[in-house]
Structures are given as structure tokens and as C-alpha cells.
Amino acid sequence: MVRLKDIAEYVGVSVTTVSRVIKNDSSRNVNPETKKKVWQAVKELGYTPNEYARHLVASSRQQKKRTKRIAWLASPRLAETNPYFSKIYSGISETLNSAGYTLLLLSNEDLEDEALFHQMIREKEVEGILLIDKVDEKVLLEIKDLLPVVGVDFNYSDHAISTVDYDREDAAWKAVEHLVSKGHQRIGFMGGEIGADMASEKRFKGFKKAMNEFGLTIDKSWVINTGWCLEQSYKSAMDLLSQPSTNRPTALLCAGDLLAIAAMRAAHELGLTIPDDIGFIGIDNNEMAQYVHPSLTTISIPQYEMGVIAAKTLINQIEDHPNIDLKTLLPFKLVVRQST
């Protein structure tokens, strides 16, 4: 078993310095470069604290103390202010509370703090982790090697971990099918991808697949990457819909309801009638969708239930240790309203 002494010799510092770094002791400053070398040695040597020694109990049956703490890796903005993710968060937190677990919110910035990462993950102060935000592949592999992990939503659907999501391609296909049933042939797509080509985004793949299967042409100028920015959605829609009627789509599939609502405002300001001049369909069934005018047709995603299933999947991994990665796709449904 690797000891603090081994790390100290490897780095060329004292055992006290190594201990201070690992315990994140701020009583005396340690050179940042030294800290970096210590944490690198922790990883390379495979140091793991002796948890049994730390949690000795009076009885002869020495057992590791359970924390019943779960980490949710998502930025506070997603968990608290984004309506889509806040519903998932509610499903997760309520399910964990009912099972006697507590939920700890972590961000990517927290994981970049080696002391906190060591404390939370390597020393297993949390028993499992739910992933929303995308993390570095090396970090993901290390986390998976140490703790049960469940990915929620799209970032982890193609990784070798248990995931809970919905079929994004099929949802977009269903949206196009609905627009075609309403007589639309000139259909545009408004989505968002940050730091990557939108061609890899699954809802866009579903849009392309449906357009091809229905024999419809995709006009590249009608495909808009908003970067999930509502202001960009509004501005792009203003540019697109201000074109002559022969140069613009008759309907827009928006990858999120909020993008659709922002684009609908642009249509109103341009004097266009919805759905006669331009139809809109969204994806997710945001609470606002039923209150905008006209009310927004959308593909309803069971966000709260995604959180519930994700939490139950993680609890099952923690308590029953199944040696299998589960890929769970929840059903969606078309909700027809006035915008189509």
C-alpha cells in the first residue's frame, strides 16, 4: 500500500508537506508547483487513504462509515435557473431525500481543485455521482474507477456508464413529421451547440433524417446555431424571417422551447401571423410554452421523471453493485397547440 512517505520520497519533499497538501491545510503556505507535483504523485502512485483506519468503530466488526452523500455535477446556473434542468434536479433531490441521501452540488471548477477532488472522490466522501455537465475524459475514467456514476441527459449517452435520457433523434423526427402533416415542406432548424459543429447534435441529426425520409430539401441558410443563447435566437429569427416569403421557411423546429419563444417574438415584431405565415414547434414542454401567444406546440420530455430514474439507478448501483451499465431512454409525446 502506498504511504505518505512514498509520495514524499517520490516528489522530494517532507512527509509533513505531503500531508498538508492532501489535507488542504491552509495554516502554512505550500508552493503551487509543489502542490501540483504532490497531486501528480498521488495519481501516478495510486495513493488511497486507509479509510478503515480513519473510521474505526468500537466493535470488532470494523465497517466503513457510510456518508449517504451524492454529488450532482452541474453548474448552479443549470440546477437553479434553467427550467429544463431544474425539473431534473427536483426529481433527483426528492428521490434521494426519500431514500435518506443528501445531495451535494459540484461544478467543473470544483473538480479542478485537486484538494477538493481528492477529498470528495478519492477519499469517497460521496458515495456516487450524477453527471450533467461534461467533464474531461480522463477525469470521468478516474471517477468511474472509484465511484458509481450515472450520466443524465445528452453528454454521456455514448459513454460506458449508466445513463438516463430520451431519444433526441426520434423526438426531432416526430416534430418534423407533425410539421409535414400540417402541409409544411420548407422547414428550418434552430438549435444550439457550444464549441462544436452542430452536425453532431442529436436533435439536428433527427431533423436531417426526417427531412431526407420525407423527401424535403434542407436549406443551409435556414439552419441556425444559437449556442443556446435566447438573444441570438431572437436576432437570428429577425434576420431569417425578414426575408421575402419565398426565401424563408414556413415552419421552424426549435431544439428547445425557450429558443422557439424568443424566435416567436421576432415573428410578432415583423408582423407575421403564427401559424399562418410561420409555424413553430419546440422540444421539452417548458412551463412557459402553454402561456405564450399563440401557445407553443412542443415535444414533451419527462424531465422530472428523468431525475427520479437517474437517482434510483445510482442508488441501485451503490447498494446492490450490479456489474452492468444501464441505458435508459424515457418516452416523449407530441403536445399540439396553436403555434402549428
Automatic annotation (TrEMBL):
HTH lacI-type domain span: 2-58
Entries under Pfam families matching the protein: LacI (PF00356), Peripla_BP_3 (PF13377)
Keyword annotations: DNA-binding, Transcription, Transcription regulation
CDD domains assigned: HTH_LacI, PBP1_LacI_sugar_binding-like
Name of protein: LacI family transcriptional regulator
